[in-house]
Amino acid sequence: MAQGRSETYRCGNTYTDRPCDGGKPVKVDDLRTDADRRASEAGTHRAEVRADQLERIRLSQEKEAYERSRRSAQEARQAAIAERRLASSEQLARARAQKLASEPHKSSTRFSGASDGKPAPTSDDAGGGRKKKRKPSSGSSAG
Fold it and tell me: Could you read off the pLDDT of 20-29 as tens digits, one per residue?
């Protein structure tokens, strides 16, 4: 149990085994038994092991939180992009509709200047200049 004894000096807020200016010798004998020392060291070891476990748990939780935050930010970016695309397509559709509404409409062949009361020729009538034969009305006399 006897350890090599050397003097210990307190120099300000530090301790050293060499004398210094204004240093005071300090008594540092360890009066604990070997059993007390082993019990103390075992307690210190248990505390270190538990501290290491807690550190691993903390690091794992921080990593999970980081991943959740990263995924959340990525989803937010994707949602913002989708929202901008939708807004852009809606704006384009409104612009097209406004342009179509403001442009004069071209007249179709069906409505082009038929002022004599006759309907305009249809696509069936346009082929070859032939007219459809009319069936005689049932009340008229053939003559």
Answer: 888 888 888 8
